[in-house]
Design goal:
76% of the residues lie in helices and 0% in strands. The chain has helices at 2-129, 153-156, 170-176. Mean pLDDT is 79; it is low at 150-156, 161-166 and 177-182.
């Protein structure tokens, strides 16, 4: 029993130190609890802020989705219109190629026709003078211009300098006609 009493005495001597230690640990736990509570309150405030931001982001995401849909529609219209433009451009290229192909022949035809204009006109007048040809046209009476349109004969007739293509006079034509007397 004595040993029990010694153990109780030892516990009684150590108990105040252990109670003090227990109080210190309790105070530390209370301080930690207060710190945890403050942190939890700040986390709660931040969670509220995050929720507000999340709602704003959600609204913006909806706007972005709508804008994306509109952009897609516009893109499809642009793509369609671009295809039409490419088709038109291809047709223009084809037409241009055809014109380029035909242009040399057209230029050559113009080169050939230009010298023949005066000759064809003179041939027509010759045919008109043949017996049984069209009746002679009487020159229309027009008021004389104040100044001549072409000051020299070469400006009116490109073949004026070429003796083979000059306009024959009426007497020369009559001399050339079969059955006419000189």
């Amino acid at each position: 029993m004595l040993s029990d009493l010694a153990a109780v005495a030892r516990l009684a001597r150590l108990a105040p130190a252990q109670f003090d230690r227990l109080l210190e640990l309790g105070e530390e736990m209370a301080a930690i609890g207060r710190s945890v509570l403050e942190i939890a309150e700040r986390l709660d405030e931040r969670a509220d802020a995050i929720m507000v931001l999340g709602e704003r982001l959600d609204a913006r995401a909806d706007e972005l989705v709508r804008m994306g849909t509109q952009m897609r529609e516009v893109g499809l219209r642009i793509d369609t219109r671009g295809g039409e433009i490419v088709d038109s451009a291809n047709r223009v290229v084809e037409t241009g190629s055809e014109l380029i192909t035909v242009l040399p022949a057209f230029e050559r035809a113009l080169e050939m026709a230009t010298p023949l204009e005066g000759a064809i006109d003179r041939f027509g007048r010759l045919v008109d003078r043949l017996p049984g040809g069209a009746q002679r046209r009487r020159p229309e009476t027009r008021p004389a211009p104040e100044e001549p349109l072409a000051p020299d004969a070469t400006a009116r007739d490109p073949f004026a300098g070429d003796a083979t293509l000059q306009d024959p006079t009426a007497s020369e034509l009559e001399d050339e006609l079969p059955g006419s007397e000189p």
